[in-house]
């Protein structure tokens, strides 16, 4: 492929960055809540006709679940990329996870 052709292709490509839908917590295995499941359905409705050819997600359950319906509608796999994983504050559910997450940004030496 010539550099000119590659440049033309790159100019016409759209990239959609999507944060995961509402989840039960911050741990890697936290699934979507019913609200998150409804958000995932609306996401699939909004993006299904956009010509998406590739979906890449973090290995976290909430990220995979957020795009699973869209991938199923499009008939394409969800590619998992470990580089998209979030920082793990704690490997188990915590009621105060949002406060602890904020603290991890406020106090960088934690």
Concise summary:
The chain is mainly alpha-helical and 110 residues long. The protein contains 4 helices and 2 strands; from the N terminus they run ααβαβα.
Walk me through this protein's architecture:
43% of the residues lie in helices and 5% in strands. By secondary structure, the chain is mainly alpha-helical. The chain has a two-stranded parallel ribbon. β1 (55-57), α3 and β2 form a beta-alpha-beta unit. α2 packs parallel to α3. The longest helix is centred in the middle third of the chain and has 14 residues, at 34-47.
Total beta-strand segments: 2
Task: Specify the number of helices.
Answer: 4
Number of domains: 1
How would you write the strand order of the largest sheet?
Answer: 1-2
Q: How helix-rich are the residues, as a percent range?
A: 40-55%
Task: Give the topology, please.
Elements: H1 3-11, H2 34-47, E1 55-57, H3 61-74, E2 78-80, H4 97-106
Parallel strand pairs: 1-2
Identify the notable features of this structure and list them briefly:
Rossmann fold; 110 residues; two-stranded parallel sheet; mainly alpha; 2 strands
